[in-house]
Amino acid sequence: MVFNKLVLTALVVALAGSLSGQDYVLSVSDGTISEGGSGSLAVSLDNNAEDMQGWSFGVCNDTASLVCTDAVDGSTTATVKNGAPPDFNQISIFDDGFTVGVVICFTGCAVLAPGTGYELNVATYDGIAEGTTSVDFCDTLGSPPVETVVVVNGTSVAPTQNSGSVDVVGVPDPEFTYNAGESSANYNPADGNASATVAISISETDNSGLGAPFPNETQGFSMGISNGSEVTPTAVNLSLPFSADFAESNLLSNGWTIGVVYSFVGGNTLPFPDEATVINADYETGGSMAGDEDGATVALTWDDGLGSPPVANVVVVGGGSVDANFDDGSITLNAVVTIDFVRGDANGDERVDIADGIWIIYELFLSGPVSTCPIARDANGDSQVDTADAIYIIHYHLLDGPQPPAPFPGCGQSDGQTAEDCSDSGCSDGGGSSPVTFIDDIQPLLSSACTPCHSPGGFDGNGPSMGLILTEDAYDNIVGVPSFECNVLNRVHPGDASMSWLYRKVAGTHVDQDILDLGCCADTDGDGEPDGCGAQMPAFGNCCLDETDIELIAVWIAGGAN
Question: Which of 2, 195, 230, 327 is most open to solvent, judged by the fewest CB atoms within 10 Å of its CB?
Answer without folding.
Answer: 2
